[in-house]
Write a structure and sequence with these properties.
8-oxo-dGDP phosphatase NUDT18-like; 8-oxo-GDP phosphatase activity; 2 domains; Nucleoside Triphosphate Pyrophosphohydrolase; single chain
């Protein structure tokens, strides 16, 4: 498969098998519910634009309200975990519409938030209360319960409302590819900043590639946010110019996961769009070309295909990617 085909596929939210780590700092092998927590969360609206909420049964948050959410179990796919948690906590069946946001505290805690829709079942009543929830109800955004367990869900509810009104990225679902670590395939883009559109000059872009002409796959760094992965790779690859560079993780193009072999394939690969620019203009720096890699394992490739170049720039400029929130 050509590089252009690979990039096109990733831009569409599709996946690609992880065959090699090009940057692999020491990392614990993820094991679900032991040293790694992958969780799901559902944002579901009814025909009145009310959002589904569940009432918590746990002693530490007894009676408070939250979105249907919970940890993935051994051997589950992300979508299976979503459907199970919604059924157990809210009493309804659901179908995911799209991944809506990824919330994270680093590679050992990642929550996949979905916009989903009800497909069957009925709300859990107080008479059906159990260890999963006390009941479920629909609530208007302006009349949410005062005793919300954590306010981190407010950004998810607002994102769901916004997406329903005007989607800013294409519907995105996890794709089924095995991975044994938490890693990121980086579409790391350098954009020139010396082009003058008034003179008909177009912005040029380059992609960072491994020595075998692949998009680099980097293991995520323990105890660091997911955005730190790209920064660490750039520092490793271009140490002498790193402080002059701005490394901006734009968002996620795709999510790859298959946990069918517990303890062996509990990892996830996030195909991530990253923009690299110089922080400020300096006379001794050429703003029209990327900084030279100081590591022989990496090189730059200029994108000359006009449609592909336009598509990449559009993703960056419009932010049409799955957002990541560090919490």
């Amino acid at each position: 498969m050509s590089l252009e085909d690979t990039v096109e596929m990733l831009l569409k939210g599709e996946g690609l098998e992880v065959t090699e780590l090009h940057f692999a700092p020491e990392q614990k092998k993820p094991v679900t519910r032991k040293n790694t927590c992958f969780a799901v969360c559902a944002v579901i609206f009814n025909s009145k634009n009310e959002v589904l909420m569940i009432q918590e049964p746990k002693a530490v948050c007894l009676g408070s309200w939250y979105l249907p959410a919970g940890r993935m179990e051994d051997g589950e796919s992300i979508e299976e975990a979503l459907k199970r948690e919604v059924k157990e906590e809210a009493g309804i069946d659901c179908q995911p519409i799209t991944l809506l946001q990824i919330q994270e505290k680093g590679p050992s805690w990642i929550r996949f938030a979905f916009l989903a829709e009800k497909t069957g079942g009925s709300l859990k009543t107080p008479e059906e209360a159990n260890a999963d929830s006390l009941q479920s109800q629909w609530y208007d955004r302006e009349s949410l319960p005062k005793n919300i367990r954590k306010r981190d869900i407010l950004t998810l509810i607002d994102a769901g409302i916004r997406y329903r009104q005007s989607p800013w990225f294409s519907e995105l679902q996890p794709v089924d590819f095995t991975c044994d670590v938490v890693c990121q395939r980086l579409l790391l883009v350098f954009t020139s900043s010396d082009a003058n559109p008034e003179n008909g000059e177009e912005e040029r872009i380059w992609l960072l590639l491994s020595k075998d002409s692949q998009l680099p796959v980097a293991a995520s760094i323990e105890a660091q946010t997911l955005a730190f992965t790209a920064k660490k790779l750039v520092k490793y690859c271009m140490p002498s110019t790193y402080e002059q560079l701005s490394v901006n993780t734009c968002g996620i193009l795709g999510v790859q996961h298959n946990g069918r072999a517990p303890g062996q394939t509990d990892g996830v690969c996030l195909n991530t769009l990253v923009q690299l620019e110089y922080k400020e203009e300096e006379e001794e720096i050429s703003l029209g070309s990327p900084p030279k890699p100081e590591n022989a394992g990496f090189r730059w490739h200029e994108v000359t295909n006009q449609s592909l170049r336009t598509e990449i720039l559009q993703k960056i400029q419009e932010g049409s990617v799955l957002p990541v929130q560090s919490i």
